[in-house]
Design a protein that fits this description.
With 309 residues, this protein is mainly alpha-helical. The chain contains 14 helices and 4 strands. A two-stranded antiparallel sheet has the order 1-2. Strand 1 and strand 2 (58-62) form a beta hairpin. Helix 4 runs antiparallel to helix 8 and helix 8 (158-168) packs parallel to helix 11. The termini are far apart.
Length: 309
Amino acid sequence: MTVGHFLDRALEAAPPWPGPRDGTAAPPSAGGHHQTKALIRAFEPLYLHAHQEAGGPWTIGYGHTLTARPGTIISSETAERLLDGDLARLALALTSRLPDQLLPHQRAALMAFSFNVGVDTLLRSRLLGALLEGDSVRAAAEFFRWYGGVRQGRQSGLPRRLAERALFLGQDWRPWQGWQPYPALSLGCVPTTAAAAMATLQIQTCLNQAGLAVCPDGCFGPETDAALRRFQGDRHLTVDGIAGPITQAALAVPHFAIAGGTVGAAGVEASLATMGSAPKVPLRRNLADQGRDRALSAGTRGRLGRIAP
């Protein structure tokens, strides 16, 4: 029996995945072992020569440290075998410590998460505590408490946490590989560029998807501030009304690059329409209604919040 077969049996001991509640995402097509490996390969650099980060251990292959030594050279096939071995050891360490009722994709996500931050970190985390209490919604929100952490020279970050959370939720994690947060936004921000308007509209759309009614008008007003603070409280985040990287990640705010850097209000509306989230009120008219046209035409800078959760 191969390592892959062993891991698939360990990861897929739970009942078959019934599919997401909203019906928008297909279940992972491969076994849990292959999903874990694919996510790790997407975020871990491949070193065929032993590599050492400043102050860190020697690493080779996909984050392998156990047998890495200075001057070691391996093939890509050996890197795959080393990764399989690391995952086999990880599966043995986690199998008896995770809730039995976890679904295959949830186990696969926790494997990928533990590979990056360490088994000990997972075992003492509130993420596992939420799972043991049967609260998978709170568990999904806990992934973001570990962004920016480092284990054995392995850099983690919000795109990786977003991908792991998507896999945990049974969604396609691949679109989140290139995710980047918008600059932080808060009450009183004036959208002086199309990108700033896009950011506010995306945040408002995601708040609506989270069940918090907000008019997607592209202006960060009191209604958006109140909804954002409620969302932060519900997700156990810092309640400060600032849509910083952590809050944007928790909202799963999509960040789409705009060719050429900037577009006008009509272009923003067209971009949003292609994503099925066009504003209910034309952006330019709504900005005029709120007395913002003068600020836009004068190029007045909006007050951007600090980088914060």
